[in-house]
């Protein structure tokens, strides 16, 4: 269970009812990867956080999964809760891995936390094997609420693509959106994100609390087009050159 992992606001985790919307939004991207991206060979989840995504990748794949993070408490939690995920402590912009180590590299909702974003992208290119697959996601700066002090630089779709361009060919550019149920709720009550941020969770009204509790990954859609209106941005890419 994730309740032993301190909730700081830097990362989300399953099993916390008032964080459930954010967890489901993150979970939707991992589930999309599992359904749409071949998961084989050696897999790295860079910035694995609580570990739920690395565990999903492990269950779907045919090779070992490594979760990379910098924080000891988090990695101890991953070892305890997801013992079949291999964990490594390290800096995302200077990883301890050899060149061309991984077939698949995922890093979801991580790059916005990094000061050296171009260096991280270059490091991803270094440790990915030729023909390997990179999947990155990040909040869309055009729609994400301002003021998250854990984020060093949020990105638009154009900025995200520009960041990858020196080292990667983008094969898919996708946006995460609210699905029909969340959209219908917002038609009646307004933005569910704004409502969550406007008050502490113990002050939420019953409609909002019920929505947050019941939200799952299936309440989000991931699709091409309308990237500037999306909530989160997802890029799938492969390394350029040899």
UniProtKB/TrEMBL annotation:
Residues in Methyltransferase type domain copies: 44-136
- Any idea which UniProt keywords this protein has? Methyltransferase, Transferase
- Source organism (scientific name): Kribbella sp. HUAS MG21
**What are its GO biological-process terms?**
methylation
Membrane spanning stretches: none
Protein name (database record): Class I SAM-dependent methyltransferase
**Which GO terms fall under molecular function for this chain's record?**
S-adenosylmethionine-dependent methyltransferase activity
Kindly indicate whether the keyword Transferase belongs to this entry.
Answer: yes
């Amino acid at each position: 269970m994730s309740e032993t992992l301190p909730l700081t606001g830097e990362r989300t985790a399953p099993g916390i009812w008032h964080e459930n919307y954010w967890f489901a939004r993150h979970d939707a991207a991992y589930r999309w990867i599992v359904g749409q991206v071949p998961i084989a060979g050696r897999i790295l989840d860079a910035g694995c956080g609580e570990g739920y995504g690395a565990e999903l990748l492990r269950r779907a794949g045919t090779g070992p999964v490594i979760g990379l993070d910098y924080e000891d408490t988090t990695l101890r939690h991953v070892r305890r809760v997801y013992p079949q995920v291999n964990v490594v402590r390290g800096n995302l912009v200077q990883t301890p891995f050899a060149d061309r180590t991984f077939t698949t590299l995922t890093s979801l909702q991580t790059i916005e936390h990094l000061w050296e974003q171009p260096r991280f992208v270059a490091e991803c290119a270094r440790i990915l094997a030729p023909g390997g697959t990179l999947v990155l996601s990040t909040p869309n700066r055009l729609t994400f609420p301002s003021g998250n002090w854990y984020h060093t630089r949020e990105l638009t779709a154009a900025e995200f693509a520009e960041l990858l361009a020196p080292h990667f060919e983008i094969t898919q550019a996708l946006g995460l959106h609210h699905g029909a149920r969340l959209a219908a709720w917002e038609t009646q009550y307004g933005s569910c994100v704004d409502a969550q941020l406007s008050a502490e969770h113990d002050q939420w009204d019953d409609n909002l609390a019920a929505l947050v509790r019941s939200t799952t990954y299936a309440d989000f859609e991931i699709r091409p087009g309308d990237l500037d209106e999306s909530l989160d941005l997802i890029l799938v890419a492969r390394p350029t050159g040899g």
